[in-house]
Amino acid sequence: MNVAPFIHARKLGKVSVDKVTLAHGGGGKAMKDLIDDVFVAAFDNRSLAPLEDQARFSLAELAGHGDQLAFTTDSFVVDPLFFPGGDIGELAVCGTINDLAVGGAKPLYLSCAVIIEEGTSIELLRKIARSMAMTAHAAGVSICTGDTKVVQRGACDKLFITTTGIGVIRRGLALEVGSARPGDVVMVNGLLGDHGAAILCARGDMALDTTIESDCACLHDLIGALLEAAPEVRFMRDATRGGLATVLNEIAEASQVAIEIDERATPIREEVKAFCEILGLDPLYLANEGKIVVIAPPEQADAALSAMRAHPLGAGAAVVGRVNRGEPGRVTMRTVFGGRRIVDMLVGEQLPRIC
Amino acid sequence: MKYVDEFRDSEKAGFLVREIEALVSTMTLPPGRPIYIMEVCGGHTHSIFRYGLEGMLPKEIELIHGPGCPVCVLPMGRVDDCVSIAENPGVIFATFGDAMRVPGSKKSLLQAKADGADVRMVYSPMDALALARKNRDREVVFFGLGFETTMPSTALTVLQAEAEEITNFSVFCNHITIVPTIKAILDSPGLQLDGFLGPGHVSMVIGTAPYEFIAKFYRKPMVVAGFEPLDILQSIWMVLKQIKDGRSEVENQYARIVPDGGNAAALQAVSRVYELREFFEWRGLGSIDHSGVKLREKYAGYDAERKFAIPNLKIADPKSCQCGEVLKGVIKPWQCKVFGSACTPEMPLGSLMVSSEGACAAYYQYGGHKSYKEAV
What we know:
The structure holds 2 protein chains of 2 kinds.
Chain A: H1 29-43, H2 59-63, E1 68-76, E2 82-83, E3 86-87, H3 88-101, E4 105-117, H4 122-139, E5 142-151, E6 159-169, E7 185-188, H5 194-202, H6 220-229, E8 235-238, H7 243-255, E9 258-262, H8 270-279, E10 292-296, H9 298-309, E11 318-324, E12 331-334, E13 340-342
Parallel strand pairs in A: 4-5, 9-12
Antiparallel strand pairs in A: 1-6, 2-3, 4-6, 7-10, 7-11, 8-10, 9-11, 12-13
Helix pairs in contact in A: 1-4, 3-4, 6-9
Chain B: H1 10-25, E1 35-41, H2 42-50, E2 61-68, H3 76-86, E3 91-95, H4 109-114, E4 119-121, H5 125-134, E5 139-146, H6 151-163, E6 169-175, H7 178-187, E7 195-199, H8 200-206, H9 212-216, E8 222-225, H10 229-245, E9 250-252, H11 264-273, E10 274-276, E11 279-282, E12 286-289, E13 293-295, H12 304-307, H13 323-327, H14 359-367, H15 372-375
Parallel strand pairs in B: 1-2, 1-7, 3-4, 3-5, 5-6, 7-8, 8-9
Antiparallel strand pairs in B: 10-13, 11-12
């Protein structure tokens, strides 16, 4: 798919073999051909095609979007590379766009650095680069600089991607993790835990067949609509690794407030619940790649919720809890059963229980 | 009926809590203390914390979190043995996930993995056998761990390996058995317990008859309980009712899963493959006679203890650790000298701090450094 109709000033190199070898990381013609064939051909934009050592953008153009630059980076090492609902390329673009967007920034530019294990198929790389390009294009973001390294077999697991993003925050916005106040409303934009469950299933270790797909999605558009409708929103964060529980603990700690959520109001898909039951996992800690936690002052909670629900990526938005005056830093949950429990940070990875 | 949400109904819970309160209000309490009920099984401990049950019960009832978490009662020396096997270059060491973080005297399996040992997390012993099929040039050692609940699946895997004539598979057998352990707890001096919630999934295999001695000779009520929160509340009510009526019987609340006679096929596989050890070392509880099993001579070829030179050293629990007293209900987790200071889930000293079924980790995670009732 031709994602950006830009005619190159120079002829792009072609790779003639079907697997990456150490030669493709050597800095010579093989490397140039690989970059051209796989990445430039897919990403295809004005900044990248001349292959300067850096992307350049006009300050005046940036300033047109706001008065603060947002800058973030993230590495992606997901196994498997392709999973129901997405792949590492889509994830690498969405993840960094979301990290910009939750700060209220309009995402503009991404870099893409890849570390490739020798022996990886060129066709697989093409597929992933195309997926990155399509995701970035749909988000109106350009991938404008990058780096390619090839390492020996075993030195990395097939493919690692690092994306760095630049965005601009519009004047007047100040979303801060320490700004939650008692009485504030805690919301999410939909079903929790899909990504974590989809990845665990896709690894095939559990021999469980499910229909769960990753929720991987770029949220800048939803967040834009949300901030339009409820500009006083205090803070939001994407609930990636560590899930809802971890984000809530971060907010409670930074704002020195207590948060209580209601298990009954927390949207979790039946399949994900069942999956967690079988394996002894807690869905509150499962990763998401298309879900944000929003803290809104009570007077704007309705507006924020309606704005999210009006967007396709927020159709399942729900109020899950409230900020209160309890012990600072403490997150609790009213259980479906009517009891209360503490929801703490996880120490390490969630490990399935024996019995 | 999905057998999930039906057992988490908050209206029914409210009803049961009121029934429990009503019953307690008519009972004579033991002098100077609440009624102590021990849930033997770690699965119950997990549910109790997961659903906030302690906070719902009247203060006249206190739950004691017993020894039924196989990860929590694993002594350091056995973890060292695991590490020693796993560090053999030709070995793939397969284990259930939550055993990976249990501290040995030098390192845990997770640390051994980081140091280069090939340690793999599996969900079933059959997954370990599949690894053996796929890696014929490596010895796959499965860390057999757990009570009677997991014992049959390990036994069946050994029988399957034998049937397929797979020779690069063995079991490091640390399976333990619940009945001698309950007996050891009942015999320990200074113990104050008024009744038991019996382990549901163990009983699914062994049935309810093996607990009769508890009712007959120790005069303690025992109710075999399911794992959903309503199961647990109902079972607590049943224990209280026995106390109130002056009865001590073995009752089965979990009859939808537990046949009184147990599972004959599972028991047959168990007795085919294992025999009792003379004694087995437990973390915090010391050595308990006939509380562990090993593979029979006939299956020596699948026994990692015979295939590998295992250090088999007895490592004393750290002195400051009071896991044993917590396991027996003599002290509460937060009363331990090192709880939350030298012993935390990040750096567990005692294994009760490791698994989410361990009383200490559960209190630490769900209750902070204070008693659960104070904290929430």
